[in-house]
Amino acid sequence: MLTHALFFILGLVALVAGAEALVRGASKIALSLGISPLVVGLTIVAVGTSSPEVAVSVGAALSGNTDIAVGNVVGSNIFNVLLILGVSALIAPLVVHSQLIRQEVPIMIGASLLLLVVVLDGTLGRADAGLLLALLIGYTVFLIRQSRAETKEIRDEYDAGVRRPSGWDSHWAVQALLIAVGLALLVLGSNWLVDASVVFARALGVSDLLIGL
Asked: pTM of the predicted model, to two decimals?
């Protein structure tokens, strides 16, 4: 059991380190290619910060632990809203942009309701997956087009907060290496985390779904 606990901790560390390396590498290589920092933030960074959940859920699905795969996604979203936002607001009040209220929050609620609808039959099939992925692609394209329509003042403000690639890590080879290392750590960490979680669930008589949540 101690061995599995160690692998559980190592898996979490590998996921965090892998996501960090992936985000850094992908962001810098995008910026070095002249891609807008705003587009990088809306796409690469957003996907990169979700990469641990992707790695864990895909690893669980490949291992046949579908409850962990679904529970991980649902649980992560619940904790993101309740825990992360709650703790952040305790530290300092959070100013919420009007666009977040008018656009992103309704879209988030709509995505959650859509998940509820597609799993009412007890399964999440390939057709459902295709629909979810198509909507994600459509939303990403919408965000990119919307960002290009923003005023110059908003773009300049965003650019001022982003460090352009410079120094030893500005070379494309280093950025590519960060991406490769990040992906490798995500795969390795997800395998360790899923395997250890399954062992804990069975030892404690807890369902895989509860472990995932």
From this structure: 0.63
Residue 27 and residue 45 in contact, taking contact as beta carbons nearer than 8 Å: yes
Task: Report DSSP state, residue 163.
Answer: P
Separation CA 22–CA 129 (nearest Å):
24
No. of helices (H) and no. of strands (E), the chain: 12, 0
Question: What is the model's pLDDT at position 212?
Answer: 60
Residue 38 to residue 156: CA distance in whole angstroms: 10
Phi, psi of 207 (to 5 degrees): -70, 155
Torsion angle defined by CA atoms of residues 130, 133, 138 and 144, in that order, rounded to the nearest 10 degrees: -160
DSSP letters spanning 74-114: HHHHHHIIIIIHHHHHHHSPPPPPHHIIIIIHHHHHHHHHH
Please tell me what DSSP assigns to residue 63: T
| Contact of 182 with 25, CB cutoff 8 Å | yes
pLDDT for 174-200, tens place per residue? 777 887 888 788 778 877 777 787 777
